[in-house]
Amino acid sequence: MALPPKRPGGQRAAGSQDPLLPERETGKEKLASEQLASALDALEEELEEIKVKYEMYFMGADRMEPSRRRDDLKRNVERLRSAFTRNAGIRFRIQTLHARYLSYERLWLRSGREKEAGTYRRDVMKVRRKMAEARGQKVEAAPVAKPAAPPPPPPAPASVLGDAELRDLFDSYVSAKRSCNEDVSRLTLESIARTVNKQAPEIAAKYKAKRVEFKVVVRDGRAVLTAVPRS
Q1: Contact at 8 Å (CB) between 227 and 22?
Q2: pLDDT in tens, 101-129
Q3: Under a CB-based contact definition with an 8 Å cutoff, are residues 97 and 43 in contact?
Q4: Bridge-partner residues for 212, per DSSP?
Q5: Residues 115, 72, 68, CA angle at the centre, nearest 5°?
């Protein structure tokens, strides 16, 4: 699998919506970590797109199963798992991505078998409706069952913020940005959560910290987030 282009490393620019990453890698290890991180970003995005495609397929909005994209993703995830890295944060992200893919794959394969056998709930209701119409009976519309939720991903390490801490951090960040007259229209709780969950394991591994705190600071008239490793 060709790795995506290298992403800039080191500190993020002031005013970025992502927390600062206090990392100073050099040489080949830094390049390898950046390439793996870029590949992870691409595969995580691909997994979310395929998840949406499968939801549309099982609800009947799409007629073609995205099985080819699923198989390509599986090969790329397996290839990424075989890549060597000493970066504990990168290894954790790879393991998490692999576990999420397996959870979704089991759900998709099971639902696909049910759909082919006519036991998938949406198809069962369609058959019953046609049989009732053939007998001249009126069938009341039944609620469409939502696809079963996949199992949750593996638990995050202790260095990742809890829901309450994450909400407090987000509220403080938005408040600080508004006080600095900065635009917060594109800032969301989900974007902060993704960045914190992505960077906290890397920072904890880099500094051998038991946990990582994030705080809001104002620098040069801009509100930014900084990561603070704690022993």
Answers
A1: yes
A2: 999 999 999 888 887 877 766 655 555 56
A3: yes
A4: 229
A5: 40
Return the biggest CA–CA distance within the chain: 76
The owner of tokens 């904890």 is 204
All residues at 6 or more sequence positions from 103 whose CB lies less than 8 Å from its CB, including other chains: 150, 151, 153
Q: What whole-number distance in Å separates Cα of residue 24 and Cα of residue 11?
A: 8
CA-CA-CA-CA torsion sign (42, 43, 44, 46): positive
Whole-number Å distance between alpha carbons of 91 and 141: 48
**Tokens, residue 213:** 């705190």
Contacts of 154 (CB under 8 A, 6+ apart): 95, 96, 99
Q: Where are the alpha helices (DSSP H) in the chain?
A: 27-58, 67-81, 88-117, 121-134, 163-179, 189-206
- The DSSP annotation for 190-208 comes to HHHHHHHHHHHHHHHHHTT
Give residue-wise pLDDT tens across range 71-97.
999 999 999 888 888 888 888 899 899
Q: What confidence tens digit (pLDDT) does each residue in 166-210 have?
A: 888 888 888 888 888 998 888 888 888 888 888 878 888 888 877
